[in-house]
């Protein structure tokens, strides 16, 4: 920044991973940054708060997987230590324990995805069913996260994908659909095959350690976002909660000049939106400026998924074999997870009883129930997995209903998702639903897109240095060869055959 020159003003909308990431980098580059958050605390879905009794709760538990290079780099920059060690996890059905996962990085490394296949400990699923997944490897190779690949697979449902590649019904029912229910938060017939392949590859199939995970040792809001916001404010940015954006002020050249929050106007030389699908749709619904552009009107074609987050305090110690657990088969279209917070969170380590977080995804049928009805269901499900829960008494609880809270990667939705650049030359998008080519998912993707949006601002306004974004680990050599050969054959086919297939 030239001494004496006026700082360029940037307004960032939404204080989750994307918004905080963009704000932090731009503030360090000397920009005058204002971060607007509709909620009472920064953090979006991972903002934590306290009950009336002073106990910590948050909207679900979020894992941090081995490929989260950029988030782990941020944690090092902030010089904080919020994470557990690498943890093992289990999977349950109403029949009992189904799967146990090791710490994959501790085992001899095998070519992907052989290590994942051999080291995952299935308790009931026959080998013949697991082997039926082998033909699916072609789709994994064929889907390279390119625009062409997304358009090829996005109109197909995940259920159709697995059926077309002759995955056994039992493998789909007991392995792949449970992954979808807690990874993409919906049953297979409601998930895009493109999103399914992207998610599976990033978290499970690309490299042997990818499924290894750590957890925050308290709420993400307290352990990560609070110290991060302190550093953001030290860098000179303003973080303003309870500011719900209602419109943009736009000039005749399609440039945003300001952001409207009710009666307040925040002048801007550039704007970054960093909110989820549901929040963005609310902003568009109130904004004549955004409604005048087709790409923003088309966001009404995208949707979210209902989440139910519960936290239960039991009156006794219960032995839970693994701290993190995914569950399937309890409801036809709902996946759920439960976590032993005595093992994961510092504040409950010496708790006399047991503290459990149980989160339900695609939880539409639960949201209208009373807290008492929900808690009875949760306890009965927990007792099916670990019988000792049936004899325990709930002494305190929290029930949080989150309507349309997480992104729904529905079949055909890719064409409506926005890239980082918009038809407004100084308005940029970020978030886990934004189209990008980095290859990451979930919180890591949200953070990466925040940095990408910040870099677009740096390029547009011409001041400061771009943020360094760490790429995902390269494909292993055999995957690179297979993808290269596949692309060659695909190009050859296009040159000599009619284009029979829709994208």
TrEMBL record:
Keywords attached to this entry: Oxidoreductase
UniProt GO MF annotations: 9,9'-di-cis-zeta-carotene desaturase activity
A Pfam family matched in the record: Amino_oxidase
InterPro entries recorded: Amino_oxidase (IPR002937), FAD/NAD-bd_sf (IPR036188), Zeta_carotene_desat/Oxidored (IPR050464)
Record domain Amine oxidase: where: 18-457
Record's keyword annotation contains Cytoplasm: no
Taxonomy, superkingdom: Bacteria
EC number: 1.3.5.6
SUPFAM superfamilies recorded: FAD/NAD(P)-binding domain
Protein name: Amine oxidase
Organism for this UniProt entry: Nostoc punctiforme (strain ATCC 29133 / PCC 73102)
